Amino acid sequence: MNILDAVDAASLRKDIPQFRAGDELKIPVRVIEGNKSRLQVFQGIVIGRQGD
Questions:
Q1: Which long-range contacts (CB under 8 A, 24 or more apart) does 11-19 make?
Q2: CA 39 – CA 31 distance, rounded (Å)
Q3: I need a labelling partner for 3 at 20 to 30 A (CA). Which of 17, 36, 39, 41 fits?
Q4: What are the start-end ranges of the E strands in 1-52?
Q5: What is the predicted pLDDT for the residue at 23?
Q6: What is the pLDDT of residues 2-22, one digit of tens each?
């Protein structure tokens, strides 16, 4: 394993559930506006995945 692979492996999240094309996802994203923050939920259907 080279150094770049080690850095990539260390930065990847392990808690992402499995999903595939055709699945519907709801992804909460923290949005910070000034001194306030809120959760904005993005929802959509997966049409494809890159690198699989």
A1: 19/46
A2: 6
A3: 17
A4: 24-33, 36-45
A5: 96
A6: 888 888 888 887 888 899 999
Q: Of 8, 26, 5, 7, which is closest to residue 17 (Cα–Cα)?
A: 26
Higher pLDDT, 49 or 1: 49
Describe the chain by its helix, strand, coil percentages, rounded to 5. 15, 40, 45
- In angstroms, rounded to a whole number, what is the distance separating the alpha carbons of residues 17 and 9? 17
- Looking up tokens 């699945």 gives 23
Instruction: State phi, psi for 36 to the nearest 5 degrees.
Output: -110, 150
Greater confidence (51 vs 47) lies with 47
